[in-house]
Amino acid sequence: MPSNAPATNTLPAALPTDIEVFRAGTRTADDGSVHTITEADLAASAAAYDPAVHEAPHTVGHPQHNAPAYGWIERFAVRDGVLQIAASKQVEPQFAEMVATGRVKKRSMSFYHPNDGSNPKPGIWYPRHVAWLGAQPPSVKGLKDVNFSDAGAICFSEPVTPTTTPTDPSPQEPDDMSKELQEQLAKTQAELQASKDEAAKAQAEAAAAKKAAEQATATAASFAETARANRKAGYVSFAEAQIQAGKLLPKDKEMAVATLEALADTKPVEFAEGDATRKVSPAQWLQDLIAAAKPTVSFGEFAGGGSGGNAAAQSGQAKGKSDAEIDQAAQAYARHHKVNYAEALTAVTASFSS
Q: Among positive and negative, which fits the CA dihedral 26, 27, 28, 31?
């Protein structure tokens, strides 16, 4: 029976809200300087924070040059004298998982000093970044701010709980957890980038294949169109040759060509012819039938007069007339005298030859 229990390996979509990062009071910074930051100061910091001016990143440990960033802080808030992260955005899922599983717990808050010349909002403690630390918090004494090159960075690495004593002299082990987490996150990011590169490559290959297929289809269509045009030209040439041979009437030329085109794509037909079986396309069969027929009339042009003229009349040939002229005259004669085309053709041919 399937279980309805939620999956336990789903990565959190984002960091939780209301993450405490700094408590008002007199604090000793990582460089040994002592500063008193009141609740009003923190309220001013939260109100003045503007990501468009300076967006404070989430970092793991204290990487050089403030890289890489694993998310960005969207808003700060103050509650009961504690500065909190009200909302974050663009957080790496692997980083959010590490926070959710407790692999990084301590936070190190860094501010711009109110009198620092590089402070984007002079006169207030402006948030610079929040560094997440591993199993052990860093030692207060001698810890340098290596996240930013500006000299005005003020970092407070002690936990935010009220019971914390900033100058706790108890020895602390080196924090190697931050380095391990950075390496893991870097590896994950490299794998994600490799996946993105592979997907982009596959997309490019698919686009190239689609383009090649479209070109092949266009080429095939062009070849097919050319083949149809050449085939029709062949049928037209065939019909004109049969008209010249007297086996096809001029008026039937267009119908003969259209019929041959209609039959061109019909499947070949097999039939017995003597002791053999013949396979032929209907279009070819019709062409063979027309070509094998006896001439119905003989058109031609030659001079009349004397016995030659009488011979021309008897053979159905017309003096000085083209095929088209004879055809037009025959059609007009047939309409006027209400006779069939063959009778009209005989009559006009005789009249032209006399």
A: negative
Q: Which of 195, 154, 189, 197 is nearest to 68 (CA)?
A: 189
Asked whether 56 and 72 are in contact (CB, 8 A), the reply is yes
Distance CA 46, CA 36 (A): 17
Ramachandran angles phi, psi of 194, nearest 5°: -65, -40
pLDDT at 35: 92
The per-residue DSSP string of 237-284 comes to HHHHHHHHTTSS-GGGHHHHHHHHHHHHTSPPEEEEETTEEEEE-HHH
The C-alpha angle with vertex 267 and arms to 261 and 268, in degrees rounded to 5, equals: 100
- pLDDT over 70 at 74, yes or no: yes
Condensed to tens digits (0 to 9), the pLDDT of residues 191-214 reads 888 888 988 999 999 998 999 889
The residues, ordered by sequence, that sit 6+ positions from 160 with a Cβ below 8 Å of its Cβ are 20, 21, 22, 23, 82, 107
Domains of the chain, by residue range, sit at 19-162, 176-295, 297-354
Look at residue 298 and give its three-state secondary structure. coil
Residue 259: CB partners within 8 Å, gap ≥ 6? 286
Backbone angle region of 130, left / alpha / beta, with phi > 0 → left and psi within -120 to 50 → alpha: beta
Neighbours of 309 (CB within 10 A): 16
User: Where is pLDDT greater, at 36 or 305?
Assistant: 36
User: What's the CA gap between 338 and 219, in Å, rounded?
Assistant: 53
Global confidence as pTM? 0.43
